[in-house]
Amino acid sequence: MMTTKSISRDGLASLVADLVGGGTEVIAPSRAPDGEVEYRRVLRFDEIVWSDEMPRSSLKEFFLPPSEPLFSWRQTRSDVTIEPVPTRFGPRVVLGARPCDVAGVAAVDAVMGWDYRDELWFGRREATTLVSSACGGVDGSCFCRMVGLSPESEKGADLVLFPGDGGHLAKAVTEKGESFLSAHAARFGETTDEAKPVADANAGLGGGVAPADPAAIRAWLSEHFEDPMWESIALRCHGCGACAAVCPSCHCFDIVDEPEGLLEGTRRRNWDTCQTARFTVHASGHNPRADQSARFRQRVMHKFSIYPAKFGEVLCTGCGRCARACPAGMDLPEIVSKIAALAAEAVR
Amino acid sequence: MNLYQPHLVRIEAITDETADTRTLKLGFLDPDVASTFDFRAGQFGEYSVFGAGECTFCIASSPTRKGSIECTFKSVGKATNAMRGLNEGDTMGFRGPYGNHFPLDRMEDSDVVFIAGGIGLAPVRCVIWNTLDLRDRFRDVTIIYGARSVSDLVYARELEEWGARPDVRLWRTVDPGGESADWKHEIGFVPAIVEKAAPKADRAYAVVCGPPIMIKYTLPVLERLGFPPERIFTTLENRMKCGCGKCGRCNIGPVYVCKDGPVFTAAELAGLPGEY
């Protein structure tokens, strides 16, 4: 049985001061210099934005940075020496994250851990405690319910904050969440309160977003790799990859060498996306995904068919950022609900 | 050391196969890696030149021959051109082995038919030597190899060696017009030579690697000869970066070529979308 405690606003402020003072990095929704809310490193409680504004990018960059060194090399005549990068990281707490964003981190865990363990990803994961905050939803692009989550879902979180009497209830979800409660026991109080339900914004904003049947969608997709729908959907797509950049669960990357002068340099991995034309080009020039409809289909297939076939869940947390970021108005919530309807029809 | 940090390897020997195709023999610098490194026929690795980046090929030598590995590559891009610029004694990077392998255990006590075109002989060469080094475990061994022209045939010395062996049936061919004045072997496309060689399908496995067009026209010939698609193996070569199921680049439908492949049966290929 996991513990639930309470914490007041003042308690949260002291908690942030304790963490920062103790050398823990605190990441929370905060205002960037341009006024937009994003997940940022904060030093004080009053930098944290506790509004319904959706941070513009997901938590992904704190575990899989947009560009990160894998190692450095130095060459002397015929010999090469390699300087490894650390795979252990300092303690970090993410505070007040969206449930869809912590769920995204958990979804990528599966990919980073099957057979081969990505030490850079898990080094950061192990050093980080994820404290999410039940969400009021944001706008009509939110569709977490459609993909089986909710504004109160606990997937991926170590500790979840719910609105409660005089502050928040803090519910531990993992052992790490329990340890966090004990380590900072002075800031938490006992409670017998029930968590108050957050406003179910998804239902209203999303035009009555209903959970879709992931198995039916997967079955439909496996039968409709070839379908005229893909071409008509992708007509609008520029292939810019903005959707993948803001996505909490898209994790594709490139590995490139960046020489610094002739004799040394760094091999890095950089975010990449299946939406660009060169992503799959063979050395011969042959491109297995030669047009945008094949590339957009891959994005949908990976999220709702390929990943589910391997790991049982979908690779989408319904945050809706892809729809908000798309310069061409591509709308994944709409596309998924269309596929869900076709799938439901096929089942009937 | 993380997953993406390569082992350092030293170039021990360089063999030019054709004008643009070269084989490197690579020895691991770390004695622990050198003594423990092992792989199975068909597996691949990420080879790198520091400053130019990584490229993906099969290991072209046989796992029965320990101490070093070989790769055969054509200079086509940034990394392979940089690899071609290296000399004997130079250091490069290797990580692997990755992927599945040819099921040699299952192929024992059967005939094995190797069919390759052009540089497609590289992954097949690994299985050929693996088979020949354990020769008494297999029945008839047939090798059918073709290239566009005589100067495009790779592993020339080994072709002579295989051709001279009484326990190997070797068919060599070049495309019409690709023959030289002293060419004594077949002239014709690989599928036609497979038809002519007509290997028996009974208790036999086929391994087919080469350009997509060759594979496309060879598979129907094998099926006509009676090879069931479950006993025809090939390899896929989708673009990869990580090689180990993370970077999301090599998917074909539900399959990760880097983990579920690179070795597939013709039956498995028939069930996949054509994104390769």
Task: Give the gist of this structure.
Chain A has helices spanning 9-21, 99-113, 119-127, 175-183, 201-205, 214-223, 228-234, 242-246, 292-311, 321-325, 332-347, and strands spanning 4-7, 25-31, 37-42, 67-76, 79-84, 92-97, 128-133, 159-164, 167-172, 253-260, 264-271.
Would you mind describing this structure in some detail?
The complex is a heterodimer of chains A (348) and B (276). Chain A is an alpha/beta fold and 348 residues long. Chain A folds into two domains: 4-201, no CATH class; 214-347, no CATH class. In chain A, 33% of the residues lie in helices and 21% in strands. Chain A has eleven helices and eleven strands. In chain A, strand 2 and strand 3 (37-42) form a beta hairpin. The relative contact order of chain A is 0.16. With 276 residues, chain B is of the alpha/beta class. Chain B has two domains: 7-98, Beta Barrel (Elongation Factor Tu (Ef-tu), domain 3), CATH 2.40.30.10; 104-235, Rossmann fold (3-Layer(aba) Sandwich). Helix content of chain B is 25%, strand content 30%. Chain B has nine helices and 15 strands. Chain B has a seven-stranded mixed beta sheet, sandwiched between helices. In chain B, helix 6 packs parallel to helix 7 (212-225). Chain B starts with 6 loop residues before the first strand and ends in a 6-residue tail after the last helix. The model of chain B has no long low-confidence stretch (mean pLDDT 95). Classes of the chains: A alpha/beta (348), B alpha/beta (276). Chains A and B meet through strand 4, strand 5, strand 10, strand 11 and helix 9 of A and strand 4, strand 6 and strand 13 of B.
